[in-house]
Amino acid sequence: MRKYKISNLLGIGVLLMTLAFAVSSCLDLDEDPAKSRLAPGSYSNQAELELGVTGLYVQLEAMARMTTFMVSGWGGDDITTHKVSNKADFREYDQRSVSALNARSATNWASIYSVVRAANNVIANAKDLKLSDQNAQNRLMGETYFMRALVYMHLTRIHGRIPLQLQPEPIVDLPLASQEEVYKQIESDLKQAEAMLPLIYPNVSAGAPRPNQGSAKAILARLYLDWAGYPAKDQSKYALAAAKAKEVIDNQKSYGFSLVTDLESLWTIANRFNSESIFTIVYNQPLGVGNRKYGMLGHPSDLKGWQETFGEIRFFEDFPAGPRKAATYRLDYDWENFTDQTNPVFKKIVGPKGDIPLTSFDTDRNDYYMRLAEVNLIFAEASGRSGNVTPAAWEALNQIRRRAAGKPFATPDPSVDLTSGDIAELAFTERKWEFAGEYLRWNDLVRMERVKEALSQRNPRTSKNKAGELLKVSNPIIGSLEKDNYFAPIPQNEVNLNPNLGN
Amino acid sequence: MLEMSIKLGKYLGVLFLLLCFGTAFGQAQVTGKVYDASDDTGIPGANVLVKGTTTGTSTDVDGNFTLNLTQNDAILVISFTGYTTQEIPVKKGSKVEVRLEASSKLLSEIVVVGYGTRKKSDVTGSVAQVGTKDFKDQPVTRVEEALQGRASGVMVSRSSGNPGGAIKVRVRGVNSITGNNDPLVVVDGVIGLALNSINPNDIESMEVLKDASATAIYGSRGSNGVILVSTKKGSSKPRLDVDVFTGFSYVPKFIDVLGAYDFARIENSRRINNGGNAVFTDQELAGFQANGGVDYQRELFQTGRTNNVQLSTSGRSGKINYFVSGNYMKQDGIVMTTRYSRLSGRVNVSSDITDKLRVGVNLFATRENNHNNLDDQREYQGSMILRALTWDPTTPIRNDQGVFNNYSLRSLAHLGYNPIADMSTRDLNLITDRFNANINVNYRFNDHFSYTAVGGLGSSNSTNSKYLTTPPFPAAFFNNGQTSLLQMSNIMAYEQVFGKHNLKVTGVYEFQQNTYSGNGYSATNYLVPSGFYLAELAAGKNLSNDYNKNGIESLMGRAEYIFNDRLFLTGTVRRDKSSRFRKDKNVGIFPSVALAYNLSSLPMLAAVESITNLKLRAGWGQVGNQNIAPYSTYPSVNINGGYPFDGKSLTPGSRPDGYGNADLTWETTTQYNLGVDLGLFQNRINVSVDAYQKKTTDLLLNVPVPAFAGGGAVLRNVGEVENKGIDLSLSGAVINKQNFRWDATMTMSKIANKVVKLDGRSEIQGSFLNIDGSGRALNVIQVGQPLGQFYGETFLGTWKTAEADEALKVGAKPGDSKYLTDENGVTVLQAIGNGMPKFSWGFNNTIAYKNWDLNMFINGMSNFQILNVTQGLVVGATGNQRGFLSPTQLNQWTPTNETDIPVGGQNRTASSRYVENGAFARLNNVSLSYTFKKIKGIESLKVYASGQNLVLITGFSGYDPEGSDRNYDGGNDDTAAGVNVGAYPNPRTVTFGIKIGL
């Protein structure tokens, strides 16, 4: 009986204790993500804004490090790829038969819009931000607008008309904007950037790893040159292109820009920060953000390469001999007798001899998103096309010609210099050689409607192998060379998700 | 396959019929013998009673008895302390043999139903039970293996043969498209533990709660079914058991790939076809023909070895019951250097402190080590197996200096790192330490009231350290994750009998909290290739951190009413409050009702002798799914990585990541169930059939956002999925003689799954991205179709010479692959198959003859397809695989022999070309054992040999139709069931073992 009572008491004791524990439980049912996550939404200080802006670079780099970013460049008459290997997506561009299922187009499209989304977020989150350091806020916002413009321009060069997403909340049924609307949006962002960015971004290396006012102006000049050509063909923009380019050339010292003396030095890892780049995308292989467009990708399998990016034979044949050709191609190779595929190898891709190991596809090479040389040639060409040719325009062209001939670019040299002729066409051709293998040629052919003219003449004329056989063009054209096939189709998946993009 | 299972069913039926004629006629006496079923020795002093009378007797020293009958038919009730009572129908003059099962088997009559146990006969819901006896004849190293094919409505598929690899368990299909479809696991009352870490030898029984009337007591976590695991307790007789086995496993088949000579020859022709140059000279070809090159597939596989030692002791001493066990298992995989080991220990002790108070403590600790686990180290473009299958057979493993050739010497076939070099030099160790403590206190106030408290504490600490040697520089990755779980359950139970009325009421208050904290680093570009512990020397270093916490608080009530042992009524309601949803959305109420009626007691059925038991069950209930990641309702910011502005160091950056959705709430599944339990011939044959319909609404669905709007997906509550199915379980004693007993169990499940509604769209793309670099999803979710739809091109063979002009329009030439296009020439992407099995079955046989025991377990699945992307890559010329490697290529298109094997064009791996029938039947287990009896000083001694996966009947061309993959970055593996991107094959295993009981 007594035992019964004790156990009863004990039981009740245990019960009460447990209940007490239960009721006073420390269970917290309100989630607080802040302990392990950065809070989304409006910024309250400079550090948050800086994080957001750096995030744009992280996204940009994630896509720019792959050749996918440059896939439309294979459309040009300067670049080709392997005939058989797993480069089908590049071959589609090379052979002018780009499918809506092209995986590189789709990846690139998605990556561009993830930068756009991030930029839209920064703009929205900083809307009510008032930093005590107004210069810092301007600088950071200027970068944001610059970045959004940069990627939209990159995309419109591939696809033409695109949807314009300009706010952080996704609008899933946007239509395609007209070409005019796209250019105006890019112009507006670049003008904001031009107004907000400093002359030189503080505490950065040479080559504008963070853009300055000059960078924005240079990209604006590029935009106007495009705008004046196909498909918008607003000829009045040539004058604007020339004017913007001239602003950059005239003030290059204040922006920290200048041409380098030796063209070949640009393609070395040692010289990856240089004054000629008006906007540099920076890489660091050991830190996991290496540049995967160079090295192995430009070598044939004879040299254990991945044979993605080759020079076209006819273009190589036509390329004027001289220091510029030597800086563009690896002339030390007996490329006509490679066993796998016989195409010239770009020094711009694989680097000068010994600079990048044969086994390396992930490098520290930086990207020069745009070079000052291009500003010079935009000035020369746009001056010609707008009918306002000045000695300064000839000088801009001649500087590039002198360097190409291995002479000091700033010293007039009658053996090289030109002072008469169709400066626009001379500059257009100068671009062809100067930017060979830099994925820019395709866009020149588009804007001047010269795709058919250029790509109809790709068959080699003089290059022969040991056996004396004339080499053949690597990837013959199979698609249309007419204007309706200039732009790549919008990725099919996107059209499936938003049929408005199909119109 | 369906046909085959029907045939098996018929076969079983015929056997059952044969049994019905076994009764004798004659004299007024009944004689018999009562045996101990475990060792067939006679039981002296057992009680034999004629049911409904006081006539009875006891057995003699040998277990024999004689009894006079007054009526022609009678039922004998035979009982003995420590054994399960049996009722045997007899006629005058019959001679009967009765085998009593030891009382540890009593559990088989008791069913664990969650927050309590019930007599099997009182259960109203749909519950499947798997006890130790069901799998004791098979050497199991994993709990899931014990479940496979033994519980109807439960599909267990071994998607990876990796030792310690994932085993998928699904109860009655899949409901959730985005969330997790794993059933809830409750171990001795503690919710949410991992099934794969439990030592199967510690398990007394597992109950699978299938319908909503059974699972609704687990509310918001019950929608995928619930598996209740009960571990062993000590019984009266102290004993010591030792179980040792060793097994050998190997890959059951090899996939056909080209040898070096054929590969080189076809590579030459492929290049020439495309206007290129041959890469191999005739001399080299002759060399390959003579020497054969390297077969990387065979180099990768090995014979694996498994060793298992299990020691346990149990018993009762005074008022204390104990069960103590230790287990060590080491399993070498069939892929070189893969290994899994597990060391575990358990102590279950309970004590009757007074006759009212009982306290029990269960402690369980394990250490698992997963070495070079291929499932953990997923490869972005296909698995290691796939890499070995597609690696260049013309490149030797090592060069003349004995150093590994890291890459193909001529950049042929797979462009990745040499798989043999990789596996030989990598060092990955995922070590998980788990500790679970469970304290339960039970106090009986009186005959009617009792209170139980269960306190559960679980902690798991896993360190994942990886050293990878991928050229040019090695890299190390480290992550440490700590999970802790705290649960407190308070259970009040009331039970009272009022005449023919029996009432039970249960009330529960419970809460649980889980926290996770993880920290890690990566060290890339080792300057000196010196192993994991010299990460300080790496040039690139990166940090990662994560923390989350979630909790749930619940109230549950259950009322059961039984009238006259005929009518059974159960009603439950659970209220859950979860931290995963916002304040106004975080409470869910989940009700259920179930009704059962025992027809066998009706007069008209009582007259039918053969029917011993006939029970009808009907149930309805609602359960939920809250299985989304913590913080899913909030937008998130990605802070990984950084940008090297100065070219030397990374500056961190932030960018928008998840969109967040504050409106999220539970997924709700409403289920109807109708069931019949039929017992024939004194329950010698038992049939259980359940039909059900489940409808899941407010699906937690990842709705894709178009890339131009930011990409990714938003989690929303939209859509509906329906599952309808039938579960059948048929078991019986085919032969029941003294020295010869054959028990057979057949389970079958048929399921029809359908997506009823999405967010207004007719389809959304899945998230399992192809491994060919195309960035395209392999799966699609379509209204009106089951989950698991494959998405891709329709393959039409090759373009023929006569179609050259037409081919040119899509940029192709004769001999290139041809795919279905629409009128505009755009390639059509559509559903091309479904990977979710719609029919599964298991057939388990245990035959005991004298000292011999034979167990044979066959199971199968059918009505599904496999998207064999692996084969697509073996064929090649796509993704990372640049050449042709399939023997089918020997019959490739030529201008003179225009076959449908393309010589060029796009090889789309997600196309109907690689969709295959996945149906299979597998001889899952055969084991034969011999028991030595009456050895002095030894209670029992048993030696056995067994084989797993000895026979696989399937038309599938790959390793194993059950082998399927998960997406590279995880994700729901049910929406992309049946996708094979290089799954680790299931091994064939032969095992030898010995069991000693003292």
Structure commentary:
The complex is a heterodimer of chains A (503) and B (998). Chain A is an all-alpha fold and 503 residues long. Chain A has a domain at 295-350. Helices cover 44% and strands 3% of the residues of chain A. Chain A has 18 helices and 4 strands. Chain A has a two-stranded antiparallel ribbon. A two-stranded antiparallel sheet of chain A has the order 2-4. Chain A is globular. Chain B has 998 residues and is mainly β. Chain B has a 22-stranded antiparallel beta barrel. In chain B, a hairpin with a 7-residue loop joins strand 53 and strand 54. The longest helix of chain B is centred in the first third of the chain and has 18 residues, at 2-19. The interface between A and B is large, with 109 and 107 residues.
The number of helical elements of chain B comes to 12
The average pLDDT score of chain A comes to 92
State the assembly state of the protein chains: heterodimer
Look at the structure and give the mean pLDDT of chain B. 86
Summarize the amount of helix of chain A as a percent range: 40-55%
Structural class of chain B: mainly beta
Q: Helix content range of the residues of chain B, please?
A: under 10%
The number of distinct β-strands of chain B equals: 56
The CATH architecture assignment of the domain at 105-244 in chain B turns out to be Beta Complex
The first-to-last residue Cα distance of chain B is 46 Å
Output the CATH homologous superfamily of the domain at 105-244 in chain B. TonB-dependent receptor, plug domain
List the total number of helices of chain A: 18
Q: Main β-sheet of chain A: number of strands, strand sense, barrel status? A: 2 strands, antiparallel
Family (chain A): Belongs to the SusD family.
Keywords (chain A): Cell outer membrane, Membrane, Signal
Pfam family, one (chain A): SusD-like_3
Domain RagB/SusD (chain A): 347-501
